[in-house]
C-alpha cells in the first residue's frame, strides 16, 4: 500500500468541525486539484460555488435537512453540473440555440464531471488533514436552492460539500467485500449474495458498536427501507425546467 491508497482507505465522512479556518491557499489547492480530474472531452462541465455568506449557509441548511454542519463548517462548496458555460461557448460561434445541449447524455456528462472533480477535491482536502462530507441533502429542495444560488438554465446543484478540520474521529465505515462489486468479464448475479450476507454481519457489528446499540440494522435492511421510501420525486420535473433531459 502506498501513501495515496493509505489516505483513500482512511476516508470517513466528517460532520463536526473545529473553528479553524481553511485558508485561501488551501481552497486554491483543493479547487485546482478538482480541476485536474479527467473530464469528458475536456468539457469541464461543472461549476463550484463557495458559500461564505452565513445567512445563505443557514438557508441551505434549512433547505437540506437542518444539517448544523453546513452552517458550522468553515468551507461549504456547492458542486454544480454546468452546461451553461458550453452554451456561451456555442454562442461565440453560432447564432441559434444549441439544440442538443440539454440531452440526457449531456446531463450524465456534466454530472459525472462534477462528481469526479468533487472527489479529487475531497482527496486533496483529506491529504491536508481536513475532513469532508458530501451533502446530497441540498437536492431535497433543489428548486429553492437553485434560486438562492441564482443558477441559470443548464446548471443544477449535484451536491454540497462541507470541508474543515475534523472535530470527531470515527473508524472508517466498512465497505462491501470486493467480491460483491468486482465481476470478471460478465455480470454474475449469483456470486455477489454470499459476500452481501457477510457484509450484513460486518455492518450490524459496526453499527451496534458505533451507535452504542441504538442502531443494529443490517445493510440489506437499510437498503430495503431506502427502496420503500419515496425520495426527491421532484427531480425529473426540476431538471426538465433547467433544460435537461430531452432525448
Ligand atoms: C453524493 C453523496 C451525497 C451525500 N449526502 C449526504 C448528506 O446529505 N448528509 C450526510 O450527512 N451525508 C451525506 N453523504 C455521506 C454518506 O452518507 C457517506 O459517504 C456514506 O454513508 C459512507 O460513509 P463514509 O463517507 O464515512 O465512509 C453523502 C455522500 C455522497 C457520496
From TrEMBL:
<feature type="domain" description="Nitroreductase">
    <location>
        <begin position="9"/>
        <end position="165"/>
    </location>
</feature>
<protein>
    <submittedName>
        <fullName>Oxygen-insensitive NADPH nitroreductase</fullName>
        <ecNumber>1.5.1.38</ecNumber>
    </submittedName>
</protein>
<keyword id="KW-0521">NADP</keyword>
<keyword id="KW-0560">Oxidoreductase</keyword>
<dbReference type="InterPro" id="IPR016446">
    <property type="entry name" value="Flavin_OxRdtase_Frp"/>
</dbReference>
<dbReference type="Pfam" id="PF00881">
    <property type="entry name" value="Nitroreductase"/>
</dbReference>
<dbReference type="InterPro" id="IPR000415">
    <property type="entry name" value="Nitroreductase-like"/>
</dbReference>
<dbReference type="GO" id="GO:0052873">
    <property type="term" value="F:FMN reductase (NADPH) activity"/>
</dbReference>
<comment type="similarity">
    <text>Belongs to the flavin oxidoreductase frp family.</text>
</comment>
<keyword id="KW-0288">FMN</keyword>
<keyword id="KW-0285">Flavoprotein</keyword>
<dbReference type="InterPro" id="IPR029479">
    <property type="entry name" value="Nitroreductase"/>
</dbReference>
Amino acid at each position: 500500500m502506498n501513501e495515496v491508497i493509505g489516505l483513500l482507505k482512511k476516508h470517513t465522512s466528517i460532520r463536526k468541525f473545529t473553528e479553524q479556518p481553511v485558508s485561501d491557499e488551501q481552497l486554491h489547492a483543493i479547487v485546482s486539484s478538482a480541476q485536474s480530474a479527467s473530464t469528458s472531452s475536456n468539457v469541464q462541465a461543472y461549476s463550484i460555488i463557495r458559500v461564505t455568506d452565513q445567512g445563505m449557509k443557514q438557508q441551505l441548511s434549512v433547505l437540506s435537512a437542518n444539517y448544523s454542519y453546513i452552517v458550522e463548517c468553515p468551507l461549504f462548496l456547492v458542486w454544480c453540473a454546468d452546461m451553461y458555460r458550453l452554451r456561451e461557448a456555442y454562442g461565440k460561434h453560432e447564432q441559434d440555440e444549441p439544440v442538443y445541449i440539454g440531452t440526457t447524455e449531456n446531463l450524465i456528462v456534466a454530472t459525472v464531471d462534477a462528481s469526479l472533480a468533487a472527489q479529487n477535491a475531497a482527496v486533496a482536502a483529506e491529504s491536508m488533514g481536513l475532513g469532508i462530507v458530501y451533502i446530497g441533502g441540498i437536492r431535497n429542495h433543489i428548486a429553492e436552492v437553485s434560486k438562492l444560488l441564482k443558477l441559470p438554465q443548464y446548471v443544477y446543484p449535484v451536491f454540497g460539500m462541507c470541508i474543515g478540520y475534523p472535530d470527531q474521529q470515527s473508524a472508517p465505515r466498512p465497505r462491501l467485500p470486493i467480491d460483491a462489486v468486482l465481476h470478471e468479464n460478465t455480470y454474475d448475479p449469483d456470486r455477489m449474495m454470499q459476500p452481501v450476507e457477510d457484509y450484513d454481519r460486518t455492518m450490524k457489528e459496526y453499527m451496534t458498536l458505533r451507535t452504542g446499540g441504538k442502531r443494529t440494522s443490517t445493510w440489506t435492511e437499510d437498503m430495503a427501507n431506502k427502496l420503500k421510501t419515496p425520495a426527491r420525486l421532484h427531480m425529473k420535473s426540476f431538471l426538465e425546467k433547467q433544460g435537461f433531459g430531452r432525448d
